[in-house]
Predict the structure of DNA polymerase V.
Amino acid sequence: MYNYHLCTKRLVLCIDQKSFFASVSCILKGLDPLTTKLAVVADTKRKGSVVLAATPPLKQLGIKTGSRLFEIPSRSDIYIINPSMKTYLTYAQRITEIALRYVAPEDFHQYSVDEFFIDMTDSLHLFSKTIEEFAQLLKTTIYEDTGIHCAIGIGDNVLLSKLALDFEAKHHPTGVARIQYHDVPSRLWPLKPLSDFWGINKRTERKLNKRGIFTIGDLAQYPYEYLKRDFGIIGVDLHLHANGIDESIIREKGEIFKPSISKSQILMRDYKVEELKAIIIEHAEVLGYRLRRKSLLARTIKCSIGYSDGEKIAKQQTINDGTDLTEKIVSVVWKYIYQHVDHHRMIRTVSISLTGLIPKSEQQMTLFDDSTDLKQGIIDQTMDRIKEKYGQTAVMRGTAYGQSGTALERKNLIAGHKK
DNA sequence: TCTGGGGTCCTAGGACCC
DNA sequence: TCTGGGGTCCTAGGACCC
């Protein structure tokens, strides 16, 4: 049993917008998310498409995030709709602005589009007497300003706030729950299955089950050395988290540096290898554009290809000086695909990710000795400017117009979702 | 009835260097 | 005959998150 008096104790809130995409889509239609059965699916035209969000009444019928479109019963009282990503982002922005009325930006952390953390340790006294009272205030304000219901977990650290949210607040009628260090044995330890716990998925759960670990309490009391031996660093985290320990503090994270940029796509149909070139160019253009906008260079280019049968292969290549040239990304990826992908098999997924990102200011001048690179750089810059002025589809390389290009069909999508 | 898209972080083995 | 050790980087593949 840990001596929690030695642990950093803060007032952290984890806020989750209930069925976020589905709720916003209800509001857009003038419907009440708490009484309407509505699902947002990635693409209503694809039967196997995943459910991105479902309202609570639909969830009661067994449909949840990750279900497939064909699992939803066809009933006249169930709405099935495509995402409106642009609007979702606008709502998320409005909610962020509300949160920032109560904390300094360094005490705020956006975890995902519908989830964020705030550390109220320093500013609570300005707004409320107790943290529970503040949570209610925040919840009410968000609802009154946007129509979105949220759930709030309160904890002595970031982890406990997240667990309070996932295990209790989301299921309580009040939508608010608090877990402190002294609650760990009574409220965390009885929990099972393990895969409900943050950071443990089914596979890890099975491995733990084999060792006779079924509850969080089992995990907390299992000899730490064995976890470390068998699971490495993750084992250490499993042990600490099961004991409610997490020393991270939001404002100490510093500026968040995103270590990678990626673009992946499940294709609308099976593709032959030769048909992939146009897709690669589209992806490279988007990635190159994102790199150049941030004045970054990528040193490592990684390409993953998924065959129709689900098998995946990947290859990465590191370029010492780094690049932000669309053409360079295309040539590295295409060379790999052409040489290493089996031309007799059909392709269903394509993903390119850029890592080892470095600021462009660190670029070696030698790169510019190559006049081809210089020319490509000018072409990219010109295309970027046209796109900024007239939109993403204003200019495209010739190949994107061919049969296998998807950029034109996708121009109305954000992150693969409909605007 | 084939598939969301965007991420982060870890590991094991190998190459290479001193 | 039978192998140095430590550090760093790269690669391919997983696990997990929303």
